[in-house]
């Protein structure tokens, strides 16, 4: 992944080209090896008047192989990873370039918020004034009502994720914050203050997915394999769901990925989950089966998901501190997880026994979700 | 497919729901059978402020299975078909809903043209004033320069495709035009007059792709199978290509699809090709190997691609007369081809011996292209 942060002058194609270049260098491969590209991008048509960005991103990465833009809101590059994995498994390709990019900070906050709002139901949610901080705040308030918990519990998630990112050179925010900072920050949409929300970010991510045979022939040593992948869907609009505090798309994605990898929630050592808002991390931990419904709210406050805890979550800093260039996020989770598992992430030492990692990438209010399981290979 | 035409008051989700409903009825299946959705849409974020339209389209079709928006400009639903075919082949799903929709006529011509322009390189083409009629007119003029031919040859294509559509109840234009009409129409961008250009259209398309086993278990009789699928890529911008009169993305897509199906150009009885502008049909016929480079320009004028010719092309009326709701077009080609091959299209009788059909769906100035081969199954 590129460094995430503010680089409003850089185009999405440029960000993806940088990420792809890093992937080529890391793998010891050249663009000529790539047989297909799945490129995640959410709002290029809004932010850069640029659609058809699959071939454009491929072009910028030196590739003229078949290339397709995959758009599933904030889960765009997670979905791209899944399609790439399937294509390699299918035997249809031996080397697929996946990832994504998003340019956001060239827009004003209002323009950016409007662009992001297109991930909700434009007729029934956006038209009623529901932007994403609003939608997730509804979920948070309903969660408090059903299961208890409060702003302090959510604040602990933001504090944890910021702490994890302090030494991550690619993170947008490399500084600690306190619970006090979170609770006294300007309100965005009650119960969320500024620090409950992931930022607007620019960035790119890329990964080269290769078959075992290809790796062997080329003398590569990938160290980490995607052993399971799953995607789930749900009703689009929040008001059409049975529950506002459960995310069945994530439950289904996790069930599919676990089944695919032959593992269960208890086998997951570390996870990168989609904390676009603090409450989203709570909902993710429950959907993934790490906690029963209504019980993940205190996980961060209790230290369980901390780098020193039983099951560290968002060691990269998460979307909250690493940044959230929408179309790049799912690919960045895979990039960070790969580094964590193979021992070359700044936080790897703290989890040196970790062998199985999971990424959870959600779109909208989790109308779509992709879960990938990554494992260290001998 | 839905009827194509002007229905500016209908949303893309509504158009897709109608198409999906027709697919369910045709197959005798219910939404509960669908295990995955690949939905093609190009400019919903521009025309309806609606992204994340995979889950939304699925929702409108009664499905909460994993659903992903596939965007490859005018090849969006062609790419969706290919991903669906691969997923069924992969054994990952037995029943996949593919297709797409586009709402365009709610926009002014200027807004629509701007939205379509995002399929080109926004920095190097669009910024220089190149909209799509402009880009294809460059290709046409260059073709005339390199290979000869002229406006009359292109006019014969528009006349043929209109004639094919006269009895097609789903076509946007069900009336004949003459060469004189084409040559005297207002100029859009020289050498193109109004009748050289496909229209702005609203519409949806859908197909249910099922495995052989699923069809057998459910007692279905699909009659037609997708036996080959291929996608090709190319440099994004016209000025980055080696030639302005060849479309390597289509050549690669065709080569892959032929190889996949075990057929060659000579085996194709009928074809639906991407005639977004009249010259695009010429380029398609050459890329598909039906004609040598520089030789397809007179195919329509000579009657070879006519309904009574040796190899009829665009019996549906093509994009020119059937209409071109961008995200729906690739799926609509598959829908029309299926009807043609199984004998329930208005033009089926004229090609009752046809057993192998091909669809060619291109994105932008053919920076992406998907070719599918369909065959009658015993």
CATH topology of the largest domain in chain A: Peroxisomal Thiolase, Chain A, domain 1
What is the overall silhouette of chain A? Answer: globular
Mean pLDDT of chain A: 97
Give the helix level of chain A as a range of percent. Answer: 25-40%
Low-confidence stretches of chain A: none
- Count the beta strands of chain A: 10
Question: Could you give the order of strands across the largest sheet of chain A?
Answer: 2-1-3-6
Task: Work out the helix count of chain A.
Answer: 13
Q: Indicate how many domains the architecture of chain A comprises.
A: 2
What is the CA-atom radius of gyration of chain A, in angstroms?
19 Å
CATH architecture of the largest domain in chain A: 3-Layer(aba) Sandwich
Molecular structure report:
By secondary structure, chain A is of the alpha/beta class. The first copy, chain A, has helices spanning 12-27, 44-47, 53-60, 76-89, 109-117, 132-147, 151-165, 179-184, 212-217, 248-261, 278-287, 318-322, 329-342, and strands spanning 36-40, 67-71, 95-102, 187-189, 192-193, 203-210, 224-233, 270-272, 356-363, 368-376. The first copy, chain A, folds into two domains: 12-105 and 202-222, Peroxisomal Thiolase, Chain A, domain 1; 119-197 and 228-376, Thiolase/Chalcone synthase (Peroxisomal Thiolase, Chain A, domain 1). The first copy, chain A, is built from 13 helices and ten strands. A four-stranded mixed sheet of chain A has the order 2-1-3-6, sandwiched between helices. The mean pLDDT of chain A is 97. The interface between A and B is large, with 61 and 61 residues. Strand 2 (67-71) of chain A pairs antiparallel with strand 2 (67-71) of chain B, so a sheet runs across the interface.
């Amino acid at each position: 992944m590129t460094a995430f942060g503010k680089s409003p002058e850089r185009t999405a194609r440029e960000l993806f080209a940088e990420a792809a270049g890093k992937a080529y260098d890391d793998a010891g491969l050249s663009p000529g090896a790539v047989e297909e590209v799945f490129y995640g991008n959410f709002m290029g048509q809004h932010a850069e008047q640029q659609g058809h960005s699959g071939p454009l991103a491929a072009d910028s990465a030196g590739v003229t192989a078949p290339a397709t833009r995959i758009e599933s809101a904030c889960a765009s590059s997670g979905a791209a990873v899944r399609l790439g994995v399937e294509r390699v498994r299918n035997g249809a390709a031996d080397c697929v370039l996946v990832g994504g990019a998003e340019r956001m900070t060239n827009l004003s906050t209002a323009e950016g918020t409007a662009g992001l709002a297109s991930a909700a139901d434009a007729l029934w949610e956006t038209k009623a004034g529901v932007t994403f901080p609003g939608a997730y705040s509804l979920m948070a308030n309903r969660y408090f009502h059903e299961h208890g918990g409060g702003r302090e519990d959510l604040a602990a998630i933001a504090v944890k994720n910021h702490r994890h990112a302090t030494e991550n050179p690619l993170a947008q925010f490399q500084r600690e914050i306190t619970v006090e900072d979170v609770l006294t920050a300007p309100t965005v949409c009650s119960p969320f203050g500024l620090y409950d929300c992931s930022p607007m970010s620019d960035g790119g991510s890329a990964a080269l997915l290769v078959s075992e045979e290809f790796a062997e022939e080329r003398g590569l040593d990938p160290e980490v394999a995607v052993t399971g992948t799953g995607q789930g869907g749900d009703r689009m609009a929040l008001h059409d769901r049975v529950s506002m505090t459960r995310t069945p798309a994530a439950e289904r994605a996790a069930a599919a990925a676990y089944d695919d990898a032959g593992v269960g929630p208890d086998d997951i050592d570390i996870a990168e989950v989609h904390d676009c808002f603090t409450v989203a991390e709570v909902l993710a931990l429950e959907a993934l089966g790490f906690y029963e419904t209504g019980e993940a709210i205190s996980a961060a406050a209790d230290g369980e998901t901390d780098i020193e805890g039983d099951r560290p979550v968002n060691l990269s800093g998460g979307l909250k501190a690493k940044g959230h260039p929408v179309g790049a996020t799912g690919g960045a989770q895979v990039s960070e997880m790969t580094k964590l598992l193979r021992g070359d992430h700044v936080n790897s030492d703290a989890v040196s026994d970790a062998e199985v990692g999971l990424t959870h990438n959600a779109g909208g209010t989790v109308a779509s979700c992709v879960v990938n399981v990554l494992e260290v290979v001998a």
